């Protein structure tokens, strides 16, 4: 695997893991308003990506869905592209 590909895969994984943490953290761990604000900021930044980059990120997330055994996280991964605006009705 090329170095850039490794970097992209790792960064994509980190972003998704962080989003999962913000989404699933107990209210005593992360303030719900702060979590929502950060998730909305992620979505905003995703919307600024060129279509090719968004589709690459979606492909990486879909690959991860296939290897995920934890049902709750797997469902989160399945809905992540649409929930964050990576994938919209036009895509």
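Sequence proposed for the structure above (91 residues):
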């Amino acid at each position: 695997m090329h170095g850039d590909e490794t970097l992209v895969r790792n960064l994509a994984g980190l972003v998704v893991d962080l989003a999962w943490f913000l989404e699933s953290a107990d209210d005593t761990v992360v303030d719900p308003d702060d979590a929502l604000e950060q998730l909305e900021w992620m979505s905003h930044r995703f919307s600024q990506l060129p279509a090719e980059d968004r589709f690459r990120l979606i492909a990486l997330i879909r690959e991860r869905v296939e290897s995920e055994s934890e049902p709750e996280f797997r469902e989160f991964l399945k809905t992540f592209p649409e929930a964050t605006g990576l994938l919209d009705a036009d895509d």
